[in-house]
Structures are given as C-alpha cells and as structure tokens.
Specification:
The complex is a heterodimer of chains A (353) and B (171).
Chain A lengths: L3 E8 L11 H16 L9 E5 L2 H4 L4 H5 L11 E4 L3 H13 L5 E9 L5 H4 L16 H14 L5 H14 L14 H5 L3 E3 L2 E2 L8 E10 H7 L4 E10 L13 H10 L8 E3 L5 H10 L7 E2 L14 H15 L4 E8 L5 E9 L2
Parallel strand pairs in A: 2-3, 2-4, 9-10, 9-11
Antiparallel strand pairs in A: 1-7, 1-8, 4-7, 5-6, 8-12, 11-12
Helix pairs in contact in A: 4-12, 7-11
Chain B lengths: L24 H11 L4 E4 L6 E2 L5 E2 L4 E2 L2 E4 L3 E10 L12 E8 L6 E5 L12 E6 L12 E6 L21
Antiparallel strand pairs in B: 1-2, 1-5, 3-4, 6-7, 6-9, 7-8, 9-10
Classes of the chains: A alpha/beta (353), B mainly beta (171).
C-alpha cells in the first residue's frame, strides 16, 4: 500500500484565552506557516483540504464554514470537514490520496474552547436520552474511570502524579505549551482534590488554538524537495457509547488499532499519546505495550495544553518533528475522541528510507 | 398478553450553554467604528478587494485584511427580493425588501433592508444611501443602519456594480 508523507506541520501556542481572535484569525497563521514550509501559496496548491472542528466549542453556528475563508477557496476547491479531531480529517485525507483522487492534502484543526464551559459543553456529545440530560461532564466521567483503576490496584495516585511531573518537565522544551515547569511527584500529590480522585493537575487544561499539516504521496514529497516522514500504518476503532459495557481500565480499541497500524511489527522510540487525563496515559501506554525505553509525550502531551479538535493532529506533528530532526526513527501518533477514551486512532510514522 | 401503552411522541431535553462570544479582531474593529456611526471596509493586501463588513480574511486569497477603508454609506443594489410572507420571529411586516448591496469603495456585497421606496420600482444597479438610527441608539451592530433608501442618482451599469470608487460613480 502506498505510504503517505508528512511534509509540513505547524501549531499555534496553546493559550487559555485567544482573546478576540475568531476561527479564521486562529487558522490563518498556521496555514501560512505550513504553506511556507513547502513553498505553496494557498489551498489552490494542494489537491484536497480537510478540517476538524466542533461548533459547540465556541458556540458559533457554522464556524467550520467560516474557517474556509482562511483557505483562498476562489476558484472553488475540493474540501471536506469532520466534526471531530483533525486527526480524523487526516485519516479522510489519507483515504482520498490512496483512492487516487489526490496527491496532496492540507489538514487543519482548530478549537476555541474558552468561550464556553468545556467539560459541560462536551456533555452534549453523549447519548441524548439518558446521559446528556444529566449534564455528565468529561472530568467527572474521567474521575470515575480513575477510581476504577485505583480501587482495582492497577495504578496508584503516585503513578498518576508521575505522568503529570514528566509532562510538565518535558513541556519546558516546548515553547507552545500552556503548562510547564519542574515539579515533583510529592509537590503534585500535596495539591488538593478537584474531582476526586483527580487533582486539577491530572486534568488537561482548556486551550485555544489551531494546528495544520500538509501530507502527500512520497513521489510528490520528492518533487517538492522537502524533508518528510512516512505514515506507514493507520487505523481507528470505536467502542460502545454505553460506559457500563466497556472495561474502562483498558483500551481494547487502541490495542486493536495499533495491531493493524503495524505498531507491534518493529520497535518504536517515541510515542505521542492524546491522554487528556493522567491515568489515561497509563491505560494507553499499557495497551500499546510501551516500556520505559520509549520516549512518551516528549512535547508534554495534552496535559501541557489541549487544543480540542487539533490535539490529535498535533500528536502526528510532534512525532513528525522528532523524525525530521533525527531524534526518533519510528514513532506512534495517537488520537482519541469521546468520553473515557471511547474512540482511538493509532498510526506509525517512520523516517524515509 | 400485550399491555396497552401510550405512544411517546417526544421528550424534552433542553440544552442551556453559555458562551462569552467574540466576533474576531477584524469584525471588532468594524463594529467599533459602526458604533461611532462610521461604515468601514477592509482591503485585501493581495487582490485589493475591499470587504464590508470584514470577517478577518479575504476569502478569495486566504490572507488577513489589515488596511481599513472609511466608506460613505452610499451603495448600489446588486440584487434584491420582495418578501411577501411573514417570517416567524421577524417583527418587520411584509411586503418588504431584502437587498444585496455593494457600498461605494467596497467590492463585496452585504445584505441589508431597503425602505422609503416603492417595492415594485426597486431594481439592480439602483443607487441607495444608509439611513441611520438616532445617534443615542448606536451600538456595536449592523442595524445602527436602519435601512437603505433610494438616491436620486443615475443607475450603475450591471457590469460596473462592485467597482464603484469610494467617492461615488461620478458622471
């Protein structure tokens, strides 16, 4: 099967409030940056464009349509959108290329979550009859998941704090992170409970921003003459929305997606995991069989800044950057969607041979 | 032994979500001016098109519109419709006119109302002018302009609509 090359990536800073910027104004600087990396002018220069966003975040109907104003879509372009993280826009773009309908694609994701109350807004993604009317927020659901892990002896609060400490420390090397700093496990454990057993530091922050990426066939990457990394495998699996039917302490969907994506075929040296809560990083690491030798979330991950609808795409971008710089040779990019890791996408990114 | 059950036709699950909505940097600059009774547009640095109202980018080029252009409130009818049916929630009594207008000095049309006119006489290329609300009612809103009314000026040729300079079509 034809391998897909990542040739450009950019992400805005994760900020707690992007101020007056609207969706177009958030997206444009990232598009300028990725076009610049390849030497393109606008979306006319790629064969396909796909974005990921959710209008509920900023409360603006058809915000995703306004986003098209950032593209230069005159004359009309081939464009699509997913009401999901842009990692799934990347997935759609890969299908488009593999079907032979495009050689190159622009993908972008954006989220302005600060205008609303994000954990409450996300309650509206739940089953509309039983759960959404209860206003069941994402933090409370993650807290129930964490309690299951703790009470069944699968993790300790110290394990969770260790994830946060590593995130904060790694993020000191990431100028786009929102939360970073040299904190110790003991300092984190001294924090008060937020939604027990979660401390505030166990939860990703709410962030505004955008990210963008350009992918293409390997031949096109060579033609453009830019450094590239290859997506050698990708798959995504979803679990039932009925929380009572899932083993919340494991992520079967992640493991299955990883198998078909080829994660277990050869060793990896880096993994960027979309884990919005500290205990979820442990679930994902175990599902992917990641040992201590693997560099997990060297960017700090989303505990250091979570751009809803762009963070998944950014995981790909972070692995891409490390392969291009030579810091890694084979890495895992992971994206999640839905409450308590319901839906998971896993890909393998490798250096060009 | 089937039990008679009442048919459930609907359930109510109201959604209340509150947002601190922001219009965007470019729209905010436009709205700050219209609060002062000044209609403005913003120019694309690539293709020179002037957008009124601006949304942040030139949709054709995908670049930010930075340069602000002060407009006069005179405009040309690009297209229009006569609304004959009542629209739920709309306080305006039909029949009334919704028109696609291009302000002098701008290149992209916007939608507004027309009044002080004979509906059947409204036509493409017709010259119109903004009628503002009293100054004490001005807010950060497009409806500071209550409607546009006809001007006693020669029509603009169809092919010239959207190309009128800021000081008007001239002779």
């Amino acid at each position: 099967m034809q391998k897909i090359a990542i040739v450009a990536y950019s992400q805005s800073e994760c900020v707690s409030q992007a101020g007056a910027f609207n969706e177009v104004e958030l997206i444009m600087p990232q598009l300028r940056e990725v076009f610049g990396q390849v030497g393109l002018t606008n979306a006319q220069d790629v064969d396909f464009t796909c974005s990921g966003s959710c209008d509920y975040l900023q409360g603006a109907a058809f915000a995703f349509v306004s986003g098209v104003d950032a593209l230069g879509a005159v004359p009309p372009i081939k464009e699509s959108h997913v009401e999901m993280d842009a990692a799934w826009a990347l997935y759609e773009s890969i299908l488009k290329i593999r079907m032979g309908q495009a050689e190159s694609a622009l993908i972008y994701g954006f989220g302005k979550s600060s205008p609303g109350e994000l954990p409450i807004v996300l309650s509206q993604q739940l089953d509309p009859y039983y759960l959404a009317p209860l206003w069941l927020d994402t933090v409370s659901m993650a807290a129930m998941q964490a309690r299951l892990m703790l009470e069944s002896g699968l993790i300790t609060e110290r394990d969770m704090a260790a994830v946060v400490a590593r995130s904060r420390n790694n993020a000191m090397n990431n100028p786009r992170a929102q939360l970073s700093g040299a904190v110790s496990v003991d300092e984190l454990l001294a924090e008060e409970m937020y939604v027990s057993p979660l401390r505030k530091s166990d939860c990703c922050p709410v962030s505004d921003g955008a990210s963008a990426m350009i992918i293409c066939t390997e031949d096109k990457a060579k033609e453009w003459g830019v450094p590239y990394a290859l997506i050698s495998g990708i798959d995504h699996r979803i679990e039932t929305h009925n929380m009572g039917m899932r083993d919340l302490t494991d992520s079967v969907s992640t493991r299955k997606a990883a198998e078909t994506a080829g994660v277990f075929d050869r060793p990896v040296d880096v993994a960027e995991l979309y884990a919005p809560f500290s205990h979820q990083e442990i679930i994902l690491s175990r599902a992917l069989g990641l040992g201590d030798e693997i560099d997990i979330n060297p960017s700090g991950g989303v505990l250091a800044g979570n751009l809803m609808m762009a963070s998944g795409l950014s995981r790909f971008g972070e692995v891409f950057n490390r392969i291009i710089s030579g810091d890694a040779r084979r890495g895992i990019a992971h994206a999640t969607s839905g409450p308590c890791l319901q839906h998971n996408l896993v890909a393998v990114i490798e250096g060009a041979a | 032994m089937s039990e008679e059950r009442e048919m459930i036709t609907d359930i109510k699950t109201p959604i209340y979500l509150q947002y601190n909505f922001t219009a965007g940097n470019a729209p905010a600059r436009f709205l700050s001016q219209i609060k002062k009774g000044v209609l403005t547009g913003q120019r694309c640095p690539t293709c020179d098109s002037v957008y009124c109202p601006p949304r942040g980018s030139c949709a054709a080029c995908g670049v930010a519109t930075e340069e602000e252009v002060v407009l006069t409130g005179k405009a040309t009818v690009q297209s229009f419709t006569i609304v004959a049916i009542p629209i739920p929630g709309n306080p305006i009594k039909p029949p009334y006119i919704i028109a696609n207008l291009v302000a002098d000095g701008a290149n992209i049309s916007f939608i507004h109302l027309m009044s002080e006119c004979i509906n059947e006489d409204v036509h493409m290329g017709q010259r119109v002018e903004a009628v503002w609300k009293p100054q004490e009612e001005w807010d950060y809103a497009m409806d500071n302009i209550r409607y546009f009314k006809p001007l006693n000026e020669a029509d603009v040729a169809i092919e010239n609509i959207g190309k009128i300079p800021v000081n008007g079509p001239g002779e």
